[in-house]
Amino acid sequence: MAVTRAEVAKRAGVSPAVVSYVLNPGTRSVSAAARARVEEAIATLGYRPNLLAQSLRRSTSQTLGLLIPELHGPTVGDFTGAIEDLAYDLGYVLMIATTGYQPDREDRYLRSFVDRRVDGLIVVGHEPTALLREIANGGTAVILAGNVMPGTGISSVSPEGVISSAVAVDHLMSVHGHRRIGCITGPEESQVLSLRSDGWRLALEKAGLPVDPSLLQRCDIISQRSGFEATESLLALPEPPTALFFTTEAQALGGAAAVIRNGMRVGQDVGIVTFGGSVNVSNTLVNFTTVNAHLDDFAKVVMTRLLEKISRKNSGESHDSTPTDLLIGTSCGCTPERLPGS
Questions:
Q1: By the 8 A CB rule, do 245 and 181 touch?
Q2: Domain containing 200 — which CATH number?
Q3: Residue ranges making up the domain that contains 155
Q4: Predicted local distance difference test score (pLDDT) of residue 26
Q5: What b-and-e string marks burial along 51-61, b requiring 16 or more CB atoms within 10 Å of the CB?
Q6: pLDDT value at residue 340
Q7: Do 144 and 193 have their domain in common?
């Protein structure tokens, strides 16, 4: 049976109110002797405060919810780690849930987060459902990370996607001479990924090249498997692309495996550029040329906007676009001698 605050007070020879003052620093001064007796009683009895009850009284739970599509993607993995570190430093406990791209699962976790009275929610890579809009409009602080949906009443933070993607594709053309470049991306409903594929299209149009619809592969699920299968489809075309732009790093990992599986070399035979800049991808066998989203800095902006929502300093809808740059590797065809710092 759980130890009560009254039992702690009885053992320490103080009132339950004094136990509360010790557990909540700053509410009332307590003598050093009384504090020592309370702390000894807590340790001896193994008392644990009812955090949910405290949150009901204080209107804060010091917890945040992070909803992500999956745990194993390189970009989302780095972002999750950065958010967790920030939450810890700020005194928050971070609860993480994965949706597996399943709307029913997403709604179940959203309800669970609200039932646990989280102070704020970060939702990664998802379109805002009716339930999420209802939660945001009901007063819970919500930030979309990596997606932009103006007019929903939900604020967002996302790395700039169109120009940076165009720069990456232009690198394949202007530096390596590619003229037939495929694009592998996610579902059309994902606005942030559509912006990146728009960058692919923009680069081709600026170079005066036709935009061949057969070179655009949209996948329902973002994963290494979907990247592998989409790459296999493009390489099987009568006139296959000589280079590929992936709008996500998870798909780029699968795509590189497909290139190798088909007996070709990444960089020399098929140029690859991608979007993300995660540490997990930079440590793989393929040295990817990638649009660097600076995930640590991106996470800091997400957390800043969420805290503004929690403190009611910014109650309106806002959409931040964070800076990116092109990080040159060898997957595009650049040799180690041409890399920065060589």
A1: yes
A2: 3.40.50.2300
A3: 61-159+295-322
A4: 56
A5: eeeebeeeeeb
A6: 53
A7: no
Nearest partner of 121 among 90, 152, 151, 144, judged by Cα = 144
- On whether residue 178 sits in a domain, the answer given is yes
Q: Which two tokens stand for residue 127?
A: 């379109």
User: How many Cα atoms are found within 13 Å in the side-chain-facing hemisphere of 174?
Assistant: 10
pLDDT of 58 higher than 60: no
Per-residue model confidence (pLDDT) at position 1: 58
63 CB-near residues (< 8 Å, 6+ apart): 55, 92, 93, 94, 95, 116, 117, 118, 119
Helix, strand, or coil (residue 31): coil
**What's the CA gap between 239 and 249, in Å, rounded?**
25
Together in a domain, 175 and 278: yes
How much is the average pLDDT of 170-182? 97
Give Cα 259 to chain centroid, integer Å: 27
Looking at the predicted structure, is the pLDDT value of residue 282 above 70? no
Asked which of 10-19, 29-38, 330-339 is least confident by mean pLDDT, the reply is: 330-339
Token readout for 56 is: 């009901």
CB 211 within 8 A of CB 173: no
Most confident of 31-35, 50-54, 58-62, 213-217: 213-217
Helices 74-89 and 295-310, axial angle in degrees (round to 10): 50
Position 55 in a domain = no
Cα separation of 330 and 268, whole Å? 9
Is pLDDT at 151 greater than 80 in this prediction?
A: no
- Please state the rounded mean pLDDT for residues 156-168: 95
Kind of pairing between the strands at 289-292 and 325-327: antiparallel
Q: Does the pLDDT at position 183 exceed 90? A: yes
Q: Which H helix or E strand runs over 292?
A: strand 289-292
